[in-house]
Write a structure and sequence with these properties.
Elements: E1 6-12, H1 16-27, E2 31-37, H2 41-49, E3 55-56, H3 60-65, E4 69-72, H4 79-86, E5 95-98, H5 104-113, E6 119-121, E7 123-125, E8 146-149, H6 157-169, E9 173-176, H7 179-209, H8 217-220, H9 223-229, H10 236-245, H11 247-270, H12 273-288
Parallel strand pairs: 1-2, 1-4, 2-3, 4-5, 5-6, 8-9
Antiparallel strand pairs: 7-8
Helix pairs in contact: 4-5, 7-11
Bound molecules: nicotinamide-adenine-dinucleotide and prephenic acid.
GO molecular function: NAD+ binding; prephenate dehydrogenase (NAD+) activity; prephenate dehydrogenase (NADP+) activity
EC number: 1.3.1.12
Keywords: Oxidoreductase
């Protein structure tokens, strides 16, 4: 495995994920310099302090101009605006990659917005947490986790290999997948669970606010509520974009989920003990097939 070496890496959105990859690039000396591009100077200063970037620029065009590797690590709906702002000043042969939780149309749109001489490689590390911002980042965030690359017929094989090795150096287990299949699968294992967690928290707030003021979610709950809803504390901005960019899959998955909720509701309402147990047995069996990951890995 040949270690990649970049002259200049530009990270657009130096948050939890972009910042963590920046720490890895710097620690492993995979780039002469790592430049941050972002919205808030305060955050970019923190990114320098925690070792995620060497410096930051206020003009994104200046940051990507000299870069041979550009990483998009902002909420996915911002990609188009970013690419339109600076795609024309990318150098020929530069690699543009991302970490977005959605692929499908997002990959097609991103490829279309780049000059033909620039090489796009879609990537999605399946690791993260409910916290946002570079201060929550770490060099070990991706180790032992999967990272899905989503090559298309337009993907340059050499660029794909460079991005593959980069994620392997981050400690990830890298696999390739069609971008649209990615969205069906991640819709199921990641996006629907987030829908369920968000809706569960708003449902409980509704119960408290409309008829049960004594309900104190923090002090009356045990591990059950905390285990099922940790991810409801995730970034609303990021998840809004994920749901909308994977809209058709997410809506279809919610409908399936509603069917199962409806069936469980019906079984409980009619007092069908055997029916309830059968549904829970199936759920328990499926849950037990989820092999545990090392602590801190998602
Ligand atoms: N959090 C996770 O678990 C996780 C896991 C894998 C992939 N992702 C993907 O990674 C990307 C970043 O998520 P994150 O968890 O690092 O979030 P984050 O909020 O920690 O970081 C996002 C960064 O982008 C910046 N940003 C937001 N909008 C911007 C804009 N318009 N212009 C410039 N900068 C902007 C924010 O200020 C922040 O620094 C998202 O696309 C998300 O889908 C997240
Ligand atoms: O562990 C968490 O908090 C996560 O939500 C991480 C998680 C997920 O597993 O769904 C969230 C979004 C990503 O795109 C990848 C990973």
């Amino acid at each position: 495995m040949m270690k990649p070496h970049f002259k200049q890496v530009a990270i657009v959105g130096v948050g939890l994920i972009g910042g963590s990859l920046g720490m890895i690039l710097r620690r492993q000396k995979l780039a002469d310099s790592v430049v941050g591009i972002g919205r808030r100077v305060e955050n970019l200063k923190t990114a320098v302090e925690v070792g995620a970037i060497d410096r930051y620029v206020s003009d994104p065009r200046e940051g990507v101009e000299g870069a041979d590797f550009v990483l998009l690590a902002t909420p996915v709906d911002t990609y188009e605006r970013h690419l339109r702002e600076w795609a024309d000043c990318l150098q020929p042969g530069a690699i543009v990659s991302d970490v977005g939780s959605v692929k499908g149309d997002l990959v097609t749109r991103s490829e279309a917005l780049l000059p033909p001489s620039v090489r796009f490689v879609g990537a999605h590390p399946i690791a993260g947490k409910e916290k946002t911002g570079v201060a929550a980042g770490s060099e070990t965030l991706f180790s032992g986790a999967r990272c899905i690359l989503t090559p298309t017929s337009k993907t340059d094989p050499e660029a794909l290999q460079t991005v593959r090795v980069l994620w392997e150096l981050a400690g990830s287990i890298v696999l390739d997948m069609d971008p649209f299949l990615h969205d069906k699968i991640l819709g199921a294992v990641s996006h629907l669970p987030h829908v369920a967690a968000f809706a569960l928290m708003t449902a409980l707030a509704d119960v408290r606010d409309h008829g049960l003021p004594e309900l104190d979610l923090a002090s009356h709950s045990g591990g059950g509520l905390r285990d099922t809803t940790r991810i409801a504390a995730s970034s609303p901005e990021m998840w809004r974009d994920i749901f909308l960019w994977n809209r058709d899959n997410v809506v279809a998955l919610i409908e399936t989920y509603e069917r199962h909720l409806g069936e469980l509701k019906r079984l409980i309402a009619v007092g069908d003990a055997a029916g309830i147990e059968k549904q829970l047995d199936k759920a328990k069996h499926e849950r037990e097939q989820l092999t545990p990951r090392a602590p801190g890995k998602s």
